[in-house]
User: What shape does this take?
Amino acid sequence: MAGSSTLKLAGHALCLGMPLLAPLGVWLDIPWLSPLLVFGLFPILALLLGEDHSLPIAGLRRSPMLVAYLDFLPRIYAVVWMATLTWAAGYASRMNLSGTGLAGLTVSVGIGSALAICTAHELMHRRSQFDVLLARLMAGLCLYGHMVVEHFHHHATVGDVAAGATAPRGMSIYHFAPTDFQHGLRNAWTVESARLRRRGAGWWHNRVLQDYALALGLVIAFFVNFGSTGLILFIGQAVFAVFCFEVITYVHHYGLVRGEGEDAGPQHAWAHHCWLTNCLTFNNTFQSDHHLRPGTPYYELHAMYGAPRLPASYFTMFCVALVPALWRSLMHVRLDALTQARTNASRELPDWLRAEQCR
Amino acid sequence: MESRRSEAIGSFEDANDRISWLSGYESEAEVQAAARQIVEYFGLQSFVFGALFRDGGREHYRYLVGCEPEWCFLYNQNKWYAIDPFIDYALKNTSPVLASDIPLNTAGQGRMMAEAAEHGFRSGMVVPAHSGSVIRIGILYLGTSEGPERARESFHKHRNLMRAFALELLEWWDAKLREAGLEALDLDELDVDLLTKAQEHATAEEAARELGITLSRVKARYERLTRKLEVPNKRSAVQKAVALGLIRDARWPEARP
Assistant: This one.
């Protein structure tokens, strides 16, 4: 099943269900339904469905209908997610929810928002101005105004600890997340300032400022329309989403430091080509390929030779990262094996450490 | 908008819309179909849009044809472009003109006009369109198999719209030729981005951080660019790219639709 390219293309539509888990939870009166499924059921489901052995369909671009479907999917996701977010804020403000109920709803919406950051990531790499603006709006809704500018900086500095995004060996997620957020903001500011100085453009052209101004506007809009409960939900989902994004960045790059003068390559991102994760996250696990070909649409990315393998899918590794001792015990063995492999004459990774088993 | 595209044009506003949509079309066939409807709105039947463009040191003609194909065949076979009085007019003038107002000076030109009358251009007009980019000049020939009164009436009624039509066709083709130029040199949009960054005097490091690629890749790309454009350095690559119309001249503001 996991080898069928057609099924995989259809599977991408599954992501649309993720934000809808929040209203479903409310309807079934299980406020924590979404996190229960995502962090409880999905790791098992990911294991059962297995790895993604599909390849991009050759000549896909000759089929305009298929390309339109795949191109539109992230945009449709954006609409579905924004609708859910607005609905949830309205629902929370109307109903007198308990603390737990509100927390459950916030986290449920936040899961959709974390995936929205992933979707915005796909959109911001596109050439169309509409998609880039949509990505910036989505980043604004997650109060993550420097995301778009910072991400391009990240591509240029993959594996550089000083530039952020790559956690050095031993750093815990709780240390990494706030540090990386600060790094990101500083990087984005430096890049934008240099660009504006060169162009002789005024401060109002600064995209970081623009996106944070948008975020502030959205905060005010949610407060005015949905009161303090709506505001708590809005800020809560954004903080949760950004934290999830930082965890995934941590998982992607942990300990994979680029050496002096070394070019960025597939060896600078961890991968686990889980079928379910790939369907839900627009092939986010093909991170190594994306690093090298940032403008390539998600449906044309594939597994790369030479990427080191994570022990389990993102869903599992997300939970593992939250327990630093467990994380270190699983990952340091791998980092040691990687260092060992690099000193070998062939520089080949041992089979158990290779992510591209599908090729 | 999709449904409106296939309907016949009924009003000035409608015609104006259709003309402004031209730049959005991908294929030559789409432009041709839309252009036919616009020409019908003018009360005419035939059109040919010729573009004179530079390719290295030489100059070529390319045509968008909305008339009997036989006419184009005859035009090319007899090398009438060499004596075409309207090209001469368009090179030196910007105003649209009725074909009957251009004097014919040679027997060859007389023969050419006699054949034109047989193939849907019994009377008509010529609309020059001038450009500062890849294409040097565009010439829109509009014609009808009816008498000169018909052409004169249409000309007085739609003269300004015809100019807009010719200019939009020119810009559409200019963009197409830019794409073809990129393809011929085997360059892609990333190369265009890098050339634009170089034009803004960005360092290789700044370009890498803003475009999201590694520094080594930026440097390798710049080397490849200078090789492909056959120039000694980055600065000359920018100048050549501007001359070839691959990137916009940064001295002028960007045109917005």
User: Anything to note?
Assistant: Chain B touches chain A at residues 189-190, 200-202, 205-206, 208-216 (CB under 8 Å). The mean pLDDT of chain B is 87.
